[in-house]
Amino acid sequence: MGRTITIASGKGGVGKTTLTANLGIALSQAGFSVCLIDADVAMANLSLLLGMQSSPITLHDVLLGEASAEDAIYDGPSKINFIPSGLSLESYKRVDSERLESVVKDIADRYDFILLDAPAGIEKNVLSSISAASELLLVATPDAPSIADVLKTKIVAQRIGSKPIGVVINLVRGEKGEISSEDVMKMLELPIYGLIPYDEEVRKSFLQEKISPVIVRKPSAPASLAIQKIALKLSGKQVVFEVPKKQSFFSSIFGRLFSIFKKKKQGE
Amino acid sequence: MSLSSRFKKFSRFFASKILDLDDTAVPVEQFKIISDLFSRQHFSFASKNFKEVMHTLKKKHVVDSIIVAKKDGNIVASSEGNGFHDAIMGTALFNYVCSELPKSRSVFVKQDDSWFMVFPFEEKIFVIKSSASLSTIELRALARELDSLMKNSQSYFVEQYFESNFAEEKAF
User: Fold this and answer.
1) Which residue in A131, A180, A181 has the most chain B C-beta atoms within 10 A of its own C-beta, making it the best mutation to test that interface?
2) This prediction's pTM
3) Could you tell me the domains of chain B?
4) How far apart are CA A64 and CA A239, in angstroms?
């Protein structure tokens, strides 16, 4: 039986879905069999990120008992498998998210890793996605509101018997006001699984004609490299993480001048 | 726009866009709030007093009372005194609902300001009272934890707990 990991954060907009998609692909590229499940039954957008919006059978149908888990599995980029969530509000109102656990159990033997993208918050659907997996990977940005929400998620998860394995700190800019990874580790009493730098390439990957995860579009981007390291760590290999350094005064000025020049040239 | 205000505007633009001066500061006050939140969330079940264990479990799962009974209504554990009344009422209610709706997995009753939740787990009936309703996942987690605590506790702690409650009842 493979590892089942839910990726949750409590707070919205910290990069859960982006991390799930890219981490799944990184694990697949490292040679593991991976299935991603969009456990956000209300606000599904993992399929959008993977460029797979039109799926006739979804997790909604499986949770409603109208289809089997096997029927809802699709082939995604880089050989990953993917169970999308439906976009219909009507079926969302009818689904019983507590059945998710049995859906995961049904397919757990087939994969090395099953990653579940949890919704934001700590309500019923979040609890369902957390309890459906045996491990929990938390995502936070290096600021107090995000850390507080992750802390609440960890507490709620432990209350229902889940096992948090670590935290990924996303959107790290290396600014003075950011909470350091050491402090995050102390506050949450969890190991840091990785630091993902703020990377314009991640944002740009959403602004394409066909959305493609950054790890596929720009594998050498700093965020892609950081996610690859997290994948290695998840798979049991030890790696050393580096905090992204702020650019020096001169490289910052030249970088900006260069980008302004580039923009003007593109405008012409 | 005067020359000085134009100069100020340009300086601000230069500072923010070109020099990118970092005016952020380590959020010490925000840290305090988080650590305060954290300090309230340590639950220890190491106590040898079963009453204390039940009290900690109540706090951990944010419920008002926990009563465990056998399917015939005999009490197994309670966080509130002997809990006989709730145990009998809970099992009777659950048995009645199951006789009318055979596939029932839990019974939720909304009272004035609280919820009365009854569900079976491992051949026992759990009766939970709380000001908010709990999801099945939360109820199952609570039951699983209490069940394992009862199994792991040496039986004499549970016996001690009941003896003290019976004594209270007799005195009353």
Assistant:
1) A131
2) 0.81
3) 44-171 (3.30.450.30)
4) 42
